[in-house]
Design a protein that fits this description.
Largest sheet of chain A: 6 strands, mixed
Largest sheet of chain B: 2 strands, antiparallel
Chains: A alpha/beta, B mainly alpha, C mainly alpha
Distance between the termini of chain B: 11 Å
Structural class of chain B: mainly alpha
Radius of gyration of chain A: 17 Å
Helix content of chain B: over 70%
Number of helices of chain B: 14
CATH topology of chain B: ABC transporter involved in vitamin B12 uptake, BtuC
Number of strands of chain B: 2
CATH class of chain B: Mainly Alpha
Order of helices and strands of chain A: EEEHEEHEHHHHEHEHEEH
Oligomer: heterotrimer
Number of strands of chain A: 10
Distance between the termini of chain A: 25 Å
CATH superfamily of chain A: P-loop containing nucleotide triphosphate hydrolases
Strand content of chain A: 25-35%
């Protein structure tokens, strides 16, 4: 299959990774690619290894076999903080806001890096406040006091503070009201317009098909199917087969 | 398969037991005493293995049970003339069981490091009481007393020699081992081990965890008290130093070094530790704890299973 | 007469409480952030006092000795962390008790070996007394209280406003997410251990002039440190400071009635009552 943007070196290339959690074999050789500025959806039922794939890219789970390349360089054995510095940001499934830190402090965890001027920091903060006005209102409030949707905004904004080349987005719409879901959709489009690539793990199939350019379908720790998003419909048998929608 | 395991296990057990029985006949006086002492400290460590290794509760307060057993025996030996071994056992075990019940009632409500810190603080409370209650306990100087004779109450006993004392201690330590082994393999012991593996799940199945833990701490305290009585009988003194929490820490060391959850490991650990101390104290006099501490740290990092850890499953079968 | 004694004991309690707060903040920082129950904290306190003794003898300047000792022990703390505790990351918190207990044995006996059993004296930088309700009270004790308060205040500001402080607090709450945000967590953990160790050393030097410096002086402090850390709520800086003062005051008042050796039982009892009735700590508002 030769669809997508792999004529050039892709931004992220995952090559046949296997991971174990204790004795259970979670990923049985996952391979996928994300090009620069590309939004790629990763779909599958619960427990097929989508989140683990993101964690493996981030360096939070060590693959026993296989490798992860970022801009052509292997990052498989780097610590997560080094991976983040290279330009990969992570928005985990349960958001993992620093609950006792204020909203601004949460953003500063990504902002206070070497080589970022104060002017640039202010620019980035302003951008976060512009995209997510609610964060500006609540800037001095503890992260733990925000609602679920607000926490999701904060988690995405926090990732943006790293000025990443790619954001690994794990089920951003889980448990959110429809109004929030469309806001997440909008922000994905905005990020894509800015040239930030996104690897999107979702349960919300319609949203994923609309927001993404390409789709990988996973089952039992491997990628089973790969297609352009425009070629898939929510009602396709292949979607039904792997997602049981 | 099971029969073969039992055959090997019990033959090994018998060989070691016979060696320990014969040992005082061939060893010189110093090493004879030394071996007896290893058995006593081993018993103390074994008693705490019931908590640390089998129930997953790290007690940093076993010095209290040990010391109370010691002082209980001392009280009996000083109050009756001629000193009676039976009474010393009764007092020592009674008081350590009472203290263990008291400590158990409070400490078992807490888990993990909170349990460890609570037991440590309780042992310090007893330390301070013993240290400052000079008229009863002799304070800092402790108590000295005569050694009782070996015999049943009402009978003319035999005076202890270092060999008979060794056999007496060996008999009690062996009996304790067999009892504790039986306990750990009983349904009660299985519940303790399931608490160690997953407390929440064990509770969810419907076991009254607290009651099991209280009984475990009391049993453990009782055997620790027995070790205290034996130490008092062997050395004819009781001193507050033995109640200090550093002793509890050493007991934990014996366990970790020997192998948690094996009952025998702690005795091996005590032997290893005491030999190491003996060897290094010849070169380093009182600073022996420097190499001992370094070896201990290395073992915590590199050999958390302990010396006998590799045969843990086999021993517990 | 009794009123005066109570007043004196109140001041004494607060002064001791401030030192204890300094010890306990280091302990709390280390526990709260890396789940390490640092049994060797008392030994770092003791070694800090000894380094103070040596540098004071060499330089003749108490405050210089204070700074050098703090930095030396902070470096030692970082090294200890790197060698012995880092390999234990992710294992049960109990294994850290074991490892630090081993460290404590080694350091204590090293001090005995190096410095001998005779207690050393640190000369206080401020002598003289002031009148306080017809009683003389040494100035130096107030200096101790103020210096401790200043260090704790500095730590608070550092944690509250600095980038590194944010890193530390983020690491404390969610180590994995902090690392995924690009925070160099291994470096943060080492630094926290170093800061906690340095604070132990600082309190050792400050406290040195009040008692002799000897190899076993850390034992009492680590025990009391544990007590106030638990009473104040594990990992809560404000809580352990409040608990330090509470416990020290209670002990000071108790020493009016019983001997000082027995008055420590008061703090034991406070701990046990706390564990039984408010296991999350007396001064923690919401159970986490």
């Amino acid at each position: 299959m030769n669809i997508g943007s792999d004529r050039m070196e892709p931004l992220v290339r995952v090559e046949d990774i296997h991971t174990y959690y204790g004795k259970s074999h979670v990923l049985h050789g996952v391979s996928l690619e994300v090009g620069r500025g590309e939004v790629v959806g990763l779909l599958g039922r619960n427990g097929v290894g989508k989140s683990t794939t993101l964690k493996a890219i981030m360096g939070l789970v060590r693959p026993a076999l296989g490798r992860v390349l970022f801009e052509g360089q292997p990052v498989t054995h780097l610590q997560a903080d080094k991976v983040a510095r290279l330009g990969i940001a992570y928005v985990p499934e349960d958001r993992r806001i620093f609950g006792l830190l204020t909203v601004t402090e949460n953003l500063r965890t990504g902002l206070d890096r070497r080589g970022v001027t104060d002017a640039r920091k202010k620019e980035l903060l302003d951008k976060a406040h512009q995209y997510f006005p609610v964060l500006a209102e609540r800037r001095n409030q503890a992260g733990g006091t925000l609602s679920g949707g607000e926490q999701q905004m904060l988690a995405i904004a926090r990732a943006m503070m790293l000025e990443p080349k790619i954001i690994l987005l794990d089920e951003p719409t889980e448990g959110l009201m429809p109004r929030m879901v469309s806001q997440i959709h909008r922000i994905i489009d905005v990020l894509r317009a800015e040239g930030v690539a996104i690897l999107l793990v979702e349960q919300n199939v319609p949203l994923t098909l609309e927001a993404s350019q390409r789709i990988y379908l996973m089952e039992k720790g491997v990628v089973r199917h790969h297609a352009l998003a425009s070629e898939l419909r929510v009602t396709d048998p292949v979607i039904h087969q792997y997602l049981g929608v | 398969m099971r029969d073969r395991h039992a055959l090997i296990y019990w033959s090994g057990f018998t060989v070691i037991l016979v060696l320990l029985i014969v040992a005082p006949l061939v060893l010189p006086e110093f090493w004879r005493r030394f071996l007896t002492e290893i058995l006593i400290w081993g018993l103390l460590a074994m008693s705490s293995d019931l908590l640390i290794g089998y129930t997953g509760m790290v007690s940093f307060g076993h010095s209290a049970f040990f010391g109370i057993g010691m002082y209980g025996a001392a009280a009996a030996l000083l109050s009756v003339s001629p000193p009676s071994l039976g009474l010393a056992m009764l007092y020592g075990l009674g008081s350590s069981a009472a203290v263990a019940a008291f400590v158990a009632y409070f400490s078992t409500r807490l888990r993990d490091i909170y349990f460890a810190i609570t037991t440590l603080i309780f042992s310090q409370i007893f330390y301070v009481i013993i240290f400052t209650w000079t008229e009863m306990t002799g304070g800092e100087n402790g108590l000295t007393f005569a050694r009782p004779k070996l015999g049943l109450p009402g009978m003319e006993g035999l005076p202890f020699t270092s060999a008979t004392l060794h056999w007496f201690v060996l008999a009690l330590v062996t009996a304790s081992y067999l009892i504790l082994r039986r306990v750990t393999q009983s349904p009660f012991g299985m519940v303790l081990q399931s608490i160690r593996e997953n407390e929440t799940r064990t509770r969810a199945i419907g076991y009254p965890i607290e009651r099991y833990k209280i009984v475990a701490v009391m049993l453990s305290g009782l055997f620790a008290g027995l070790a205290g009585v034996l130490y008092a009988v062997q050395n004819r003194f009781a001193a507050p130093d033995f109640v200090f929490f550093v002793v509890s820490g050493e007991v934990v060391i014996y366990n970790v070094v020997g192998g948690l959850g094996t009952l025998l490991g702690p005795i091996v650990g005590a032997g290893f530790f005491l030999l190491l101390r003996e060897a290094s104290s010849r070169f380093l006099t009182e600073y022996y704890l420097i190499p001992v501490g370094l070896i201990f740290i290395a073992m915590v990092i590199f050999l958390p299973q302990g010396l006998l850890g590799f045969m843990r499953r086999w021993i517990n079968r | 007469m009794l009123i005066e004694q109570i007043l004196i004991q109140t001041v004494n309690g607060i002064v001791t409480g401030m030192i204890l707060a300094l010890v306990a903040s280091g302990l709390t920082l280390i526990f709260g952030i890396m789940d390490v129950v640092n049994f060797a904290h008392g030994e770092l306190f003791m070694l800090g006092a000894y380094v103070g003794v040596i540098t004071l003898a060499a330089t003749g300047d108490f405050w210089l000795a204070f700074v050098i000792s703090t930095l030396t022990i902070a470096a030692l703390g970082a090294a200890l962390y790197w060698v012995t505790l880092r390999p234990l990351l992710g294992r049960d918190a109990l294994t850290t008790i074991l490892a630090t207990f081993g460290i404590s044995l080694v350091l204590q006996n090293y001090a005995l070996w190096q410095f001998g059993p005779v207690a050393r004296k640190i000369q206080e930088p401020v002598t003289g007394h002031f009148s306080f309700f017809y009683l003389d009270y040494p100035w130096y004790r107030l200096v101790i209280a103020l210096a401790s308060a200043a260090i704790i205040g500095g730590l608070w500001l550092f944690l509250k406003f600095g980038t590194f402080g944010i890193w530390i607090r983020a690491t404390m709450q969610d180590r994995v997410m902090a690392q995924a945000m690009g925070i160099p967590v291994p470096m943060v953990l080492t630094a926290v251990f170093a800061i906690g160790s340095g604070m132990a050393a600082a309190s050792g030097v400050l406290f040195g002039p009040l008692v002799g410096v000897n190899h076993a002086m850390g034992l009492d402090w680590v025990l009391k440190g544990f007590i106030v850390v638990v009473v104040g709520g594990m990992g809560s800086l404000g809580g352990s400071i409040a608990a330090s003062i509470l416990v020290s005051l209670l002990e000071a008042y108790a020493s009016l009635i019983v001997s000082p050796a027995q008055s420590v039982i008061v703090s034991f009892v406070v701990l046990i009552l706390t564990l039984l009735f408010r296991p999350t700590g007396l001064f923690v508002r919401t159970p986490r």
